[in-house]
Amino acid sequence: MVRFARGAAVSAGLLLIAGFGAGSLDARAQEITIGVTLGATGQTASIGIPMKQGAEVLPQKIGDVTVRYIFLDDGGDPGVAVKNMRQLTEQNQADVILGSSSIPSCTAMAEVALQTKTPQICLSPSRTNAFSFAMAQPAALMVEGMVENMHAKGYKNIGYIGFADSLGEHNLSSMQRLMEPLGMKLVASERYNRTDTSVTAQVLKIVAAKPDAIFVSASGTPAALPQLELVQRNYKGQVYFLHGVINRDFLRVGGKSLEGVIATAGPFAVAAELPDSNPIKAEALKFTKVYNDKFGANSVNTFAAYSWDAFKVLSAAVPVALKTAKPGTPEFRVALRDAMQNNPDIVGANGIYKMTATDHNGLDKRARVMVTVKGNAFHPLP
Amino acid sequence: MTWDIALILAEDGILTGAIYALLALASVLVFATTRIIFVPQGEFVTFGALTLAAFQLGQTPNIIYLVGLLAAIVCVMDGVALVRARRVRRLPHMLAVNALLPALVIAAAIYFGPRKPAALIQILLTVALIVPLGPFVYRIAFQPVANASVRLLFVIAIAVHFVLQGAGLLFFGPEGFRVDPLIDGQLTFGTMTVSSQALLIVGTGIAFAILLYLLFEFTVLGKALRATAVNRLGARIVGISYPMVGKLCLALAALIGVISGILAGGLTTIYYDSGFIIGLKAFVGAILGNMISYPLAIVGALLVGLIESFGAFYSSAYKEAIVFALLIPALVWLSLRAVPDEEQEDL
After folding, report:
1. Residue A380 burial (C-beta neighbours within 10 Å; 0-12, 13-18, 19+)
2. For labeling, which of A200, A315, B58, B309 is most exposed (least CB within 10 Å)?
């Protein structure tokens, strides 16, 4: 008897919830849901946290449509990222997913995007598919800029040291593919890990090979470790970094040893020094203001701007998609995807996005600036 | 490879090895007396380096919140225990140790934090903030289950590691920090230059080894620790307080950790999660020393440092694999010559 009563109560409760659910579905007709899953903890937290904070300052409206954000944390773990994505698409009926912040998580989530036909906007430079998009500059685009710069300076023998992970290997193979036709040669190639306490051995081996230039394929503060060691070993050649080092913490940890190194960067990093004719400048400064107003002066960081650019792409696509379908439906998600890949040129804080059915990133050379460190700050190379 | 390179690699290996050796000493100390395989050992390294870095940047380190929180939990736990045991008269003493002392240290940190005090005061404050975390962690996580099996204590230690590492991210943020080396300058021996900081690190390692030896051989306290290590029940019968031993051990472990952190932070960038891998390699060193012998643990840890350094030169992509693969022959050899002992029953 008791069991029956309890069963009845539970069913009644479920009915009630279902009823409310149906009711709120109607009220939500003019509300789109953006599910956000980022690695704000764990190994990639130094990138995930600014991206999350960037998403926190996004506008609550696109035209007349209210935007509902649901934030989840995946700790940089692809397994959790997939679980979050399933939860966001199945339980929350998210119209679009923002995330994640690391390539392995994005790659894993892209599969779910394809299965559930939900557009996914990855904030890191991951590979895309029919339903996944990526906001960051692809590594190859940046490596190309670096190799061009090396070639222009007449460097022939190149050394390499990078993270022992898939991104490191990917960057190394991009560089080799681009530099071999130009007659440049890889003379040393070494690996290290993010939390290594010493890279003395690797640096000794590279310096012994006497390269004209060295490419350090690492991101964030750990990238400073090889440079500190190279300076200690009196290496006089040119050192190159990719855009993963463009933040203040890298400059703080590397200190004086970083003077004169060259890095690839998104235009956002040096926006204030760009010519006014560059349309990216205005957009970058606008986001900088929005972000700093919330998180304090000088708190903005390149990674945060990718969230802003994702919103720019969405806010152009949502009004188009609304013409054919209602938010919360599978039709709307497909329409949104179609609208995104037919967007006009979108000026973001990191570049100009022209996405097409075959290019779900849409960035070109305009999203790349070569910078150097002078007086412990990044400045565009003349 | 030339001799020059070999010498530099050896110096580098001995340097990291010295840090591992300090932590290996702490691991053996904690395991021998409390049977805890103290996974969070590395967190004290991280906390030490990052707290000192915060002082050097002229900030009040956020770790004060963790110290305050744990102190409050300990006060509640001890307070309830004393009231239940009808020993209310001990309350003021307990509160003086667990509430007043941490409060004073926190107040000092808040006062000195933005004022950039002298290096010595910064270091003393760092030590005073981090060392109490050892006994607090023991009181909260381990004392209630002090008689549990090695395996249960190990699992709790892993849980504590994750909690402390999470706290590290919360309080210090995801970015790495370096601390200014305690002493600058280089010394030249023949063709080789060695940084003074390197000598300081090796010297500290040797000093701690000697201090621990003196403590265990010539003081009543050290003898109590040894007695507990040999036979817990017997030690209790002759009046050695087991909780006191546990707290003391973890305080020592935290002290060694924080000193290692301050030294390591001058050599390399420390992240909120750096401590774990440093602690793990120290642990490999301790295992090479059979988890009970201090001299063997030091030798083992130095060996780990050297193998890591030379391994990184020959094949940097497989450096970690080479270090951890060391464990396999070591464990095979240790288990072949192991004598079964009565403690194994409760493993």
Report:
1. middle
2. B58
**Parent domain of B213:** 3-339
Rounded to an integer, what distance in angstroms lies between the CA atom of residue B308 and that of residue B323? 6
Contact at CB, B316 and A201, closer than 8 angstroms: yes
In chain B, how many domains are there?
1
Give the helix/strand (H/E) hosting A133: strand A132-134
Q: How many CB atoms lie within 10 A of CB A330?
A: 12
CB contact under 8 A, A199 and B312: yes
Contacts of B274 in chain A (CB under 8 A): 195, 197
Counting Cβ atoms within 10 Å, is residue A11 exposed (0-12), middle (13-18) or buried (19+)? Answer: exposed
Q: Is residue B9 one of the residues assigned to a domain?
A: yes
Query: Are residues A249 and A297 located together in one domain of the fold?
Result: no
Q: Within this chain, do residues A132 and A153 fall inside the same structural domain, yes or no?
A: no
Q: How far apart are CA A97 and CA A113, in angstroms?
A: 9
Question: Which of A192, A208, A253 is facing B176, going by the closest CB pair?
Answer: A253
Confirm whether B316 is domain-assigned: yes
As a whole number of angstroms, the distance between CA B246 and CA B298 comes to 23
Are B317 and A208 in contact (CB < 8 Å)?
no
Return per-residue pLDDT of chain B as tens, 347 residues: 788 888 889 988 998 999 999 999 999 989 988 889 999 999 999 999 999 999 999 999 999 999 999 999 999 999 999 999 888 888 898 899 889 999 999 999 999 989 888 889 999 999 999 999 999 999 999 999 888 888 999 999 999 999 999 999 999 988 889 888 877 777 777 666 777 888 888 898 889 888 888 888 899 888 888 888 888 888 888 888 888 889 999 999 999 999 999 999 988 899 998 999 999 999 999 988 878 788 889 999 999 999 999 999 988 888 889 989 888 888 888 888 776 655 544 44
Is there a contact between A253 and B268 if contact means CB atoms under 8 Å apart?
Answer: no
Q: Are residues A256 and A158 in the same domain?
A: yes
* Domain total of chain A: 2
pLDDT in tens, A70-123: 999 999 899 999 999 999 999 999 999 998 998 889 999 999 999 999 999 999
The fraction of chain B above a pLDDT of 70, given in percent, is 96
Would the CB atoms of B16 and A204 count as touching at under 8 Å?
no
Say how far apart CA B47 and CA B62 lie, in whole Å.
10
Chain A residues whose CB is inside 8 A of the B319 CB are 191-193
Question: Is A151 among the domain residues?
Answer: yes
How far apart are alpha carbons A164 and B277 in whole angstroms? Answer: 15
Amino acid at A126: S
CA distance B133 to B323: 30
Q: Is residue A125 part of a domain?
A: yes
- Pick from A191, A201, A222: CB nearest B269: A222
Residue A65, SS3? strand
* Any A CB within 8 A of B23 CB: no
> What residues contact A329, with CB distance under 8 A and at least 6 apart?
none
Residue whose C-alpha is closest to residue B108's, from B95, B99, B117 = B117
Q: Specify the pTM.
A: 0.78
- What is the tens place of the pLDDT at every residue in B223-275? 888 888 888 888 888 888 888 889 999 999 999 999 999 999 988 899 998 99
- Least CB-CB distance to A198: which of B173, B268, B271? B268
Same domain, A65 and A119: yes
Residue B274 forms part of a structural domain: yes
Residue owning tokens 């990078």: A162
Residue B113 Cα, gap to closest chain A Cα (Å) = 19
Residue A192: which of A168, A173, A170 has the closest Cα? A168
Query: What pLDDT sits at residue A6?
Result: 54
Query: Count of CB atoms within 10 A of residue B291's CB?
Result: 18
ipTM metric: 0.78
What is the domain range of residue A243? 139-265
Stated as kind and residue range, the H or E segment containing A331 is helix A330-341
